[in-house]
Amino acid sequence: MATRDIKVLIAKPGLDGHDRGAKVVARALRENGMEVVYTGIRQTPEMIVNSAVELGVDVVGLSILSGAHGDLFPRILEGLQNAGMSNVLVIAGGIIPDSDKKGLEKIGVAGVFGPGTSTRDVIKFIEEST
Prior knowledge:
alpha/beta; 5-stranded parallel sheet; 45% helix; globular
């Protein structure tokens, strides 16, 4: 169980409509004592940033399967930075090629979790990183 309240925003940026993985992760985080808000599908970067600011979250989890992470994630990270939320832990999950992971880490994505990652691994990463 989490030793302190950790607020997490789970978001599906872009036009990707498949959200089973995001819902599974959100539920696992809740069951581990974290406060989780899931924004639903088809969120713009601006919507995600606004939600993160409004809720005052510690973590933003981005779930993407569409391949648009190279366009959408930088916009989200820039928006968080501009909103004074550069201390927020940003993690990503979904279909993200290994060749893109270093570039995402360079812009501020702290962890990238692909298909088959254990929810326990995601929980441990968040707990150790916040």
